[in-house]
Design brief:
Layout lengths: L1 H13 L1 H7 L1 H7 L11 H11 L14 H9 L1 H20 L8 E5 L9 H5 L10 H8 L8 H12 L3 E9 L3 H10 L7 E5 L8 H14 L3 E7 L14 E3 L9
Parallel strand pairs: 1-2, 1-4, 2-3, 4-5
Bound molecules: 2-acetamido-2-deoxy-beta-D-glucopyranose (NAG) (2 copies).
The site of one 2-acetamido-2-deoxy-beta-D-glucopyranose (NAG) has 3 residues, from loops.
């Protein structure tokens, strides 16, 4: 069947009357990979694209063969460049808004891999190839040493200068409030309207359920969520999402 199709396509390509007039042959050539074998890492790039576009969901660990690829991505320029595209778009959008200035416009930030980076932890644990270990991860969290994501810091400062208030909405548990506060303060996030952590009443609920319930509460209390940024699709789904959502890259883990 595939052979037949190839033969059919080849016939179109070499058929001068149709092909050249419509430019068809040219287009078909362009869709045929030109440069021989795929280069190493291409399949991991496709995997990452699938993750970021939410075509690949529900995964628990990074494919083993992609550890090197994800590690280089996270530690190299591309992760930072990709993050910059997201936050620059957010800044352009925020600057374009005509706000009421009544203090009710808020922007929701997720924390992990959005505001704070756990890259120092993941660099020592296989960049998501190793299964998530809550004991080890919490040992890292309570050190309160997670650095700020520089691009998100720039967005945060811009929003404050525009009179937009910030709400942190995190999957970290309520018991970690002090640690989270200390870590945020320590790296330069000094002010916020609310810091919402996951209460024990949400045990057994998905992140989508928890986060959208909390966003609904915000709106009920008169806030207008004009923007929402996170590294997980579960930060950005459910009702309400906020007027615009911004997805930061994260090929290391998936939260539903
Ligand atoms: C998590 O890591 C600790 C410390 O290395 C280990 O004792 C424990 O068995 C791990 N838990 C799981 C579920 O793998
Ligand atoms: C947010 O969306 C609502 C509903 O579509 C709209 O009425 C409002 O003007 C938007 N807010 C901003 C600041 O664009």
């Amino acid at each position: 069947m595939r052979m037949l199709l190839l033969f059919f396509l080849a016939t179109i390509v070499v058929s001068p009357s149709q092909g050249s007039d419509l430019g068809l042959s040219h287009q078909i050539h362009l869709l045929r990979p030109q440069s021989g074998n795929k280069f190493p890492g291409l399949s991991c790039l496709s995997w990452r694209l699938g993750v970021e576009t939410r075509n690949i969901i529900g995964w628990t660990t990074v494919p083993k063969e992609c550890e090197g690829y994800v590690g280089h991505y996270m530690l190299g320029y591309q992760y930072r460049e990709d993050s910059k595209v997201v936050t620059n778009q957010a800044i352009v959008y925020a600057q374009s808004l005509k706000l009421k200035g009544d203090g009710k416009d808020v922007w929701v930030f997720d924390i992990d891999e959005t505001t704070l980076s756990n890259l120092p932890y993941y660099a020592e644990h296989g960049f998501g190839v190793q299964p998530y270990n809550s004991t080890l991860f919490n040992q890292w969290v309570i050190t309160a040493k997670a650095p700020a994501l520089p691009e998100s810091m720039k967005l945060y400062k811009t929003l404050l200068s525009l009179g937009i208030k910030v709400v942190f909405l995190t999957g970290r548990s309520e018991e970690q409030r002090t640690v989270a506060t200390n870590n945020l303060n320590h790296v330069g996030f000094h002010t916020w309207e609310k810091l919402i952590l996951r209460a024990s009443s949400y045990t057994g609920k998905t992140a989508v359920e928890y986060k959208s319930t909390e966003r609904k509460k915000l709106e009920k209390n008169g806030y207008r969520i004009i923007g929402n940024i996170g590294d997980q699709w579960s930060d950005l789904m459910g009702t309400p999402t906020g007027n615009r959502t911004f997805k930061l890259p994260d090929p290391m883990y998936y939260i539903s």
